[in-house]
Amino acid sequence: MNIKTLLSATALATLPLSGSFAIAQSLPECQDCADSMVLMSWGGAYQASQVAAYAEPYSAITGVTVTWDEGSNEAIAKMRAASEAGNMTYDLVDVEGPDAQRACDEGLALEIDFDAVLAAGSDGSTPTEDFGTSGSIINECFVPQIVFSTTFGYRTDVAAWNGATPDSLCAVFDLENFPGMRALEGRPKRTLSGASVRWCRAKMTCTMFCHPMAA
Questions:
Q1: Whole-angstrom Cα distance, residue 123 to residue 193?
Q2: How many whole angstroms separate alpha carbon 133 and alpha carbon 153?
Q3: Contact 49, 20 (CB under 8 A)
Q4: Does the structure show a pLDDT above 70 at 23?
Q5: Residue 116 carries which DSSP code?
Q6: Considering the entire predicted model, what is its pTM?
Q7: Which domains does the chain have, with CATH numbers?
Q8: Is the distance from CB of 24 to CB of 57 less than 8 angstroms?
Q9: Which of 85, 101, 165, 183 is most buried (most C-beta within 10 Å)?
């Protein structure tokens, strides 16, 4: 199938998928389509949910074979290497917004006409109306299809905390009141922004960004 590269950012939404086989009769005909495709995602339970909700129903309806690459954490590097080698093997790639923008800017991702390529919503709204009103469309290569969050867990038996419990993002970076080791994502995107929030609070300039943790 090999689209020039990807419809980035959770691009699996571009597939006419459903958990119900009842949509088989409504799938548009596809001329000169390949019988296999390569999808890149993040592995683990996240990817397993995509396999069950997207790929397996789609394969059952169309007969298309789906091969997975669990390399979304290194998606841009992999796509650059494939592009430079003249052998882009990825059809759809699940990446976050910043990487989708980078891929689009570098010509690694395919720009699409959302209203021409994607199906209308159940209420008849166009994809642009459906996604655009929420600000989810950030570029012409990015098709939003999932919402996720970053959550923190903490121990309740740390004597040095004197009975206090962290109640905001700032507390994660507050080693004075909450001493101890942290386990954080090894990439700067969210980790650095969280540390910046903590710095702002210390300077008493942006305390409004220290959002409380959900119960």
A1: 38
A2: 33
A3: no
A4: no
A5: H
A6: 0.69
A7: 11-132 (3.40.190.10), 159-209 (no CATH)
A8: no
A9: 101
Go through the chain and tell me how many residues it has.
215
End-to-end CA distance of the chain: 45
Helix (H) or strand (E) segment spanning residue 52: none
pLDDT band of residue 200 (cuts 50, 70, 90) is low
Q: pLDDT > 70: what percent of the chain?
A: 76
Task: Retrieve residue 57's tokens.
Answer: 């129903």
- What residues contact residue 189 under an 8 Å CB cut-off, 6+ apart? 96, 98
The per-residue pLDDT for 202 is 52
- Note whether 56 and 22 are within 8 A (CB): no
Contact 5, 43 (CB under 8 A): no
The token pair that represents 39 in the structure block:
């999808």
How many Cβ atoms sit within 10 Å of the Cβ of residue 69?
Answer: 17
